[in-house]
Amino acid sequence: MCVLAVCFVGAKGKRMEEGNAAKERVLITGGAGYFGFRLGCAIYQKGVDVILFDVVKPLQTVPEGIKFMQGDICCLSEVEEALRDVICVFHIASYGMSGREQLNRKLIEDVNVKGTENIIQACKSRGVSSLVYTSTYNVIFGGQVIENGDESLPYLPLHLHPDHYSRTKSLAEMKVLEANGAELGNGRGVLRTCALRPAGIYGPGEQRHLPRIVSYIERGLFKFVYGDPLSLVEFVHVDNLVQAHVLASQALRASKQHVAAGQAYFISDGRPVNNFEFFRPLVEGRVYNFQPLLTRTEVYKTGVTHYFSMEKARKELGYEPQQYSLDEVVEWFRSQGCGPKPRNYTMMHLVRDGALLLVLIAVLVSWFPSAATFSL
Ligand SMILES: NC(=O)c1ccc[n+]([C@@H]2O[C@H](COP(=O)([O-])OP(=O)(O)OC[C@H]3O[C@@H](n4cnc5c(N)ncnc54)[C@H](O)[C@@H]3O)[C@@H](O)[C@H]2O)c1
Fold first, then answer.
1. Is 165 a catalytic residue?
2. Which of 13, 125, 193, 355 has its CA 20 to 30 A from that of 372?
3. What is this structure's pTM?
4. CATH code of residue 259
5. Total domain count for the chain?
6. Which residues surround ligand 1 with Cβ inside 6 Å?
7. In the UniProt record, does the keyword Lipid metabolism occur (predicted)?
8. ipTM higher than 0.90?
9. Where are the alpha helices (DSSP H) in 92-161?
10. Cα(375) to centroid of ligand 1, in Å?
C-alpha cells in the first residue's frame, strides 16, 4: 500500500507563500540523497519552490522553506499526488548503485525501471512539461576502453552489462528519452525530456563511494581495486553536476528552443585523471573509516580507461565545469572526526584483557575434569 507522508519544513513554509502564486515549483526524486539534496538547496537559492521527494527522510536538516515529501516512486498514486503544480521534475532517485544494494535485483528493477515509468506517466497526467533524468556513464561503459567518447556512441547492449543497476539505468534512460514529445493530458502541450550521464560524483559529505575508497586504501586493496596506474577515468564535483542539471532544465524550455529535448549529455569535471592521482589527497590526508563490500562489478570496471568529451554539454547547455579538488573533501572528513585514531594501550584495554583472561581460565578449569572423565 502506498502511504504518502508530507512534511512542511521551516518557518511555516514562509518563503512559499510570499504572495507569488505563479512561482515555479520543481520536484526532485531522490531528494534525500547526496546529489538530490544538494541540487534542491541550490535551486531553492535561485528563488524556485522545491519539493524533495524520497522514500527516506534526509539525514541533513532541510533548509527553511523547502518542502520534503516522503514517498515511493514505485507507487504511482504517490508520485501523481506529489507532482501537483510542478513544472519540472529532476528524476534522481535510484537503487543498486554500489555495495550490498547491488545484490537486490528485484528492488533495483522496481525502483529504476518501474519507478521511472511512473514518473513519466505522472508527468503526462499532471501536465509537467520538463523532465531531467540523472543517468550514468554506465549506460555506455561496461568495462571496455573508451577515450574521449561522445554521445554518438551506442548504448552498451543490455545483455553485456556486468551489473543490474547499469542495465536498469540504461532502460530507464531510454524510456525517458522516448517520452520526449509525448502529449500532456488536457491539451497542456508536450513533455520535453533529457538525460544527464554523470561520471562518479564526489564532494564534501559524499558517503557512498569515498568512505569505501578510503577503506580500500587502509587495507592495501586500493591497487587491486583501482587497477592500472596508467588508466584515465573521470569524476564530477557535485556542484558541477548541479550546474549541469540547472542548465539542462533551462535548455528544455522554449526560450532555449528546447535544444536539450530528447538529448543525452555526458557530464564530468572535463579532466581525465588516474584514480591514484585523484585520490592522493585522501591517502595523504590519512582519512579512513567504514566497511567496504567489494562487488565483482566494481573491481571489474573501476580501473579501466574511460572518459568522455564534454563538448556537447558545453555547446548546447553552456556547461562550464569549475575546478575543484579533493582537499575540501579531506577537510570535511576531518571535521566529522575521521582520521587516524591513536592506538594507545589504556587502562580500559588492560581491564578488558584481564577480564577476557579470567573468562578463558574459568572455561579451561571447568573443561579439564570432564575431559579427564571422558578419557577414562
Ligand atoms: N554517486 C555517483 O557516483 C553516481 C554516478 C553516476 C550516476 N549517479 C546517479 O546519480 C543519482 C544520484 O546519486 P547519489 O549518489 O546522490 O545517490 P543516493 O543513493 O545518495 O540518492 C538516491 C536517493 O534515491 C532514493 N530512493 C531510492 N529508492 C527510492 C524510491 N523507491 N522512491 C523514492 N526515492 C528513492 C534514496 O533513498 C536516495 O536518497 C542516481 O540516479 C545515480 O544513479 C550517481
1. yes
2. 355
3. 0.85
4. 3.40.50.720
5. 1
6. 29-30, 32-36, 54-56, 72-74, 92-95, 97, 111, 115, 134, 136, 169, 198, 200-201, 208-209
7. no
8. yes
9. 105-109, 115-126
10. 62
